[in-house]
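Subject: Protein record for review, amino acid sequence with backbone structure tokens
Why sent: The fold of this protein is of interest and is recorded here as tokens.
Enclosed: The protein record, placed directly beneath this head.
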Amino acid sequence: ATNGLPDLKITNVKAIPSGNLVVVKVETSEPGLYGLGDASFVQRPKATITAIEKYLHDYCVGRSVNNINDMWQMAYTSSYWRNGPVLNSALSGIDMALWDIKGKRANMPVYELLGGKMRFALSTYAHSGGRSIEETVENVQRDMEAGFRYCRLQAGGYSGVAEIEPDFKKAGFGLERDNFMDHYAYLKGVPKLFEAVRLAAGDRVELCHDVHSRIQPIDAVNLCKQLEQYRPYYIEDPVSVQNVDYLKLIRQHSTAPILIGENFSNLHEWVRPMSGRNVDFVKHHIPKIGGITPAMKVARLGEVFNVRTNWHGAGDNSPVGHAANCHVDLAIWNFGIQEMTYSSVMSDRIRSIFPGSPKIENGYIHINEAPGLGVDIIEEEAAKYPLPEKNLNNWTQIRKSDGTPVRP
């Protein structure tokens, strides 16, 4: 016996895809006892499934379910090269599933094993964007009436509202489906968007905006300076992971709170931004750093440097991943806010596949209080939505007017 419980072994590890989402199921030597984890990498699901079934399955089978930290460290180094999004997503699936198993064996929700609740529920924000400034203002007012106290503003999507037809389209350059970003119109439009929303919605609502790392760092400095007067809750990813040294310059010129890290895949990338006091919120996509185990380390580091969390929680997460985000959020002091799109947990399709999914009510997220992560999967329902034949990820394919690719 180990800690009063039998030492169970892992007997099988498999990937369960549904659409672009990938969930890992870890089965044990106790009949009927299994854990679920999120390994979703919607841009590369087939590669992640291969990593799970061809590598981590063989690595895990026969090992104990008990020693999660040991399992994580050894699996992390097993490929020698590490910190890639494919392997970290696969590792996340294992890690979350082991926490799910541990919670079920203890007959406790995972947040209890992480130290217990700090709050009764989790604030989330409404994705209040629209095709124009006017439509975004209307959506903010609609979402406030529905109980949201935080709204994210995006007029025309991440690239803003273009004012011109791009020259590369006229020249027949690139592909027809390639998108265009009018940087001048975007940089001019975002301050107008904040001004319009503040005039219409008042000061009590908290406003966020995602730059998505699509502008030059020096333009991000100027943009944050202009937005400061509207008291943003945060400006997300004003610079890319390759340009984090510009955060210091932004801080010197603006008090607008900064959130970064959605596309970080290495928890060590946080040391400089946090220790330099140049960031206010951490935005890790938890599967991309390897699961709950490293997320808790990032959260604890953030507490030391007064950096709050806003784990990535868009449609890239399965409900299992959303639940994992929430269990961490409930247990840490420096929680800021939790992203969660309504359709990713509340749609009829999702709830038919994933019973026990978190719920959004009155601007708060409420989790299932069942032991473990609290979310199950109906494999027959998941199988109704196979992996797509192609993953073109057109939303990432953006060009400037002359055709130059826009990249973080």
